[in-house]
Amino acid sequence: MSLTELHLALLVGAPRHGYDIKQAHDAWFPDSRPLPFGQVYATLGRLQRDGLAEVVETRVDGGPERTVYALTAEGAQRLHAWLAEPAAPTGAGAEEIVRKAIAALHTGIDVQGFVGRQRAAHLRRMRELQQTPPGAGPAERLVREHLIAHLDADLRWLDLATDLLPVTAGGQPARTDSQENDT
Amino acid sequence: MNQATLALSGVSHSYGRTQALRDVTLSVAPGEVVAVTGPSGCGKSTLVMLAAGVMRTQTGRVVVAGTDLGGVDDAERARIRRRSVGLLLQFGQLVPDLPVLDNVALPLLLDGHAPAEARAAAAGWLGRVGLDVDHTALPSQLSGGQAQLAAAARALIAGPPLLLADEPTASLDQTSGRALLDLLIGTTIQAGGSVLLVSHDNAVAARADREVRLRGGAIAHEVALS
After folding, report:
1. Does B17 contact A at CB distance below 8 Å?
2. Is B205:B197 a contact under the CB 8 Å cutoff?
């Protein structure tokens, strides 16, 4: 379930409490449904239970108690493994490719590798679909062309994402807690 | 291992202060189709012009069919280009004053083949690319798609071991573009040659065995597709 890994990506760079994580998520995906607080805390609880994140601080600054979470080594490993796998080249319902690309670009984790693997996965699928079997009728061709067009759209979007969210030369994240890009 | 048909090593190229290619190293083996992709201005066309020997290498080495293009004079480079490289650009680039048949026959005519023999071969190639036009027609009388088919025939006629195709399908509709790619790749690979496809079109890149992605003149990634 990629929301788990997305939370891990949001913990890269510095420990955060739930409110920060929600804010960062909503800044990464400004057109998506805002992440409900309940879901953030439930996910953080699961991450802690599974050893993927740990509590490093509990702050009480005159307001409500805030638990600060950090990524564990195991959590970082899980995140890297997630980003090492391209999203399935389905060409439809492309949520996963968007999540992975945004997480890779914001965290700076092996961005070139991610883009290369994702392009390879999509291009291989496009190649399979281009090879219409002999005897296929127009209906089958149309289904294939529909999928090819969606895969092409994914790849064009990925180009745009890598242009708009550049990672600095050292591979450090161009972190955007707010909407600003300072690279 | 077979010697690469095309090998670039440490190639950089500048136009004045603008650096078009930065330390590019890539090779294309016999029987292999490689796609060089990337956004406009990433250095794709410069790479083609260097591989074709149309431009001189500034830094690094470009080796085509075993010959280092930097180590030969202009006449020898032109000879290698005629015999070893089929070059197909986006808009055909036919010679405006020559009939379509002579345009296709040109690589053989320039290489000293008898005109009758060269024209007979050209007529055969016009048939293979499916271009059914009056052989005496001038390029201005052809549609963009027809001109591109004639240019494809010209690129293939000498049986070059290296086919360089820069946005070969950009002036064609999808069906004609795919048919042209089938012909370019099928003909060259069957003869044991190599194809370097340069395109920003993902559907073209998907036909390759390997993708080399350029960004800002440098290789961003290289991935196997087959």
Report:
1. no
2. yes
What is the structure's pLDDT at A172? Answer: 42
What are the two backbone dihedrals, phi and then psi, of residue B191, each rounded to the nearest 5 degrees? -85, 5
Task: Find which of B182, B202, B226 to mutate to test the A interface (most A CBs within 10 Å of its CB).
Answer: B202
Q: What is the DSSP code (8-state) at residue A14?
A: S
Closest of A164, A159, A169, A162 to residue A181, by C-alpha: A164
Structure tokens at A117: 């693997």
Query: Chain B 193-222, CB below 8 Å of chain A: which residues?
Result: 202-203, 205-208, 211, 213, 220-222
- Amino acid at residue number B191: A
- Which tokens go with B33? 């189709």
pLDDT of chain A, 183 residues: tens digit per residue: 578 999 999 999 899 999 999 999 888 887 778 888 889 999 999 999 999 999 998 877 777 778 999 999 999 999 999 999 988 887 655 588 888 888 888 898 888 888 899 999 999 999 999 988 888 888 888 888 888 999 999 999 888 887 777 654 444 433 434 333 333
Query: Per-domain residue ranges for chain A?
Result: 1-84, 86-169
What topology is assigned to A1-84 in CATH?
Arc Repressor Mutant, subunit A (1.10.10)
pLDDT digits (tens, 9 = 90+) for B167-185: 999 888 888 898 899 999 9
- The whole-angstrom separation of Cα A67 and Cα A49 is 14
**pLDDT tens string A112-143:** 888 899 999 999 999 999 988 888 888 888 88
Amino acid occupying residue A126: M
Domain coordinates in residue numbering, chain B: 6-224
Partners of B178 on chain A (C-beta within 8 Å) are 130
Buried b (16+ CB within 10 A) or exposed e, B101-140: bbbbbbbbbeeebeeeebbebbeebbeebebebeeeeebe
Residue where the block lists tokens 């240019």? B151
Domain B6-224: state its class.
alpha beta
Which residues on chain A are in Cβ contact (under 8 Å) with B222? 116
Q: Tell me which chain A residues have a C-beta less than 8 angstroms from the C-beta of B213.
A: 115-116, 119
Which chain B residue's Cα is nearest to A159? B39
Alpha helix stretches (DSSP H) within B157-200 = 174-190
**Nearest-angstrom CA–CA distance, B155 and B183:** 12
